Automatic annotation (TrEMBL):
<dbReference type="InterPro" id="IPR036237">
    <property type="entry name" value="Xyl_isomerase-like_sf"/>
</dbReference>
<protein>
    <recommendedName>
        <fullName>Xylose isomerase-like TIM barrel domain-containing protein</fullName>
    </recommendedName>
</protein>
<feature type="domain" description="Xylose isomerase-like TIM barrel">
    <location>
        <begin position="28"/>
        <end position="345"/>
    </location>
</feature>
<dbReference type="InterPro" id="IPR013022">
    <property type="entry name" value="Xyl_isomerase-like_TIM-brl"/>
</dbReference>
<dbReference type="Pfam" id="PF01261">
    <property type="entry name" value="AP_endonuc_2"/>
</dbReference>
<dbReference type="InterPro" id="IPR050312">
    <property type="entry name" value="IolE/XylAMocC-like"/>
</dbReference>
Amino acid sequence: MATNPTNELGIATLSLGNWREHKLEPRLQAAARAGFKVIDLFDECWSAYLAEHNLNGEGAAAWEATPEKLAVARKLCALVKSLGMRIACTQPLRVIEGILDPEERRRTLDSVAARFPFMRAFDTDLVFMCASIRRDAGVAPADLKRVARDLAELGDMAAAYSGADGGRMLKIGYEGLSWAARNNTWSSSWEVVRFANRPNVGLVVDAFNVLAVEFADPYNPAEHGRIFPTLQESIKVLAGSMAALVAIVPGDKIFFFQCGDAERMNPATFIAPTDPDVPALLPWSRSHRLYPMEQSRGGYMPVELVAAAVVATGYKGPISLEVFSHTLNQAGGNVPDDHARRGIDSLHAVVDTIQRLPAFWKGPAELKSAVDCVMQRLEKTESTSGQRTSHI
């Protein structure tokens, strides 16, 4: 059986309700009532919180380290702690690595460093970026050495800041995004982190993004939502990949783990975008994610294989929820509480499931047993007639 995880349970602020409809404080209160201990602070939520305090939080202005904005950051930190939680990280940094123009590259890396004073004010040590989605001639996301150099320089900048103020080491996380231009798998993202070779640069694993690349195809005309034709093959291939993660990645080099599932779509009505500038997976990711193991709502992916593998590496950090869904955009004071309750129930289900899952990374017998266990759970979803498209 998998090890018994003791990881704290967390949730992204954007997964408690959209910032346009729901102020941050009620969302945090809902998370605390549900029992969460960790908050993943989204940029958009921080910007909206600044606006509530009559301060400019648009774009780069959100990270101008004025006394007024740092005071608001400390106020937010105090609020979160008063609710029995902590801010584990801020995110997401986008389009950071692989920039070719030297001046643009310098400005971009400096924009990351601009966050460091706020990280102190939030009392967090982690900020992370997702792999770049830019495909124009101004970036080289496929240049492994260039991307690794960028991450290494960011790690050095964070270390220099930490050394200067005497605080705990600030860390840079790197996440493979399922529709990124190059580093869209956990293994390619790990390559970059390994090549960066800095103790304060690590991997961020997002179960949804792993599954979106290695398991799912929401547009498959066969209507099962997978890459491979059979459920058994799909689970076995994914389990092999996750066994490799356990073997290759040290737990202390995983800086954060996010968990999420998604709806199985009806390809007759869910059409891939025709705009070449819109990644195919983007509409599914932004509007149809679910909390893990929500089979009754159309969730169909083997989230437990990713979660069990991450915990098996020795990872000690939070298991956190990152879910985007159209339901989060709805108005109404019940939205944060409803989603917080759904979220905490889902994470408890994940923790319970991985405790009982055979340790598939240990050998062929355990692998077969784990595949059988996951198949037994997911076959119920496979047999459901009719596809869910937008009625979560």
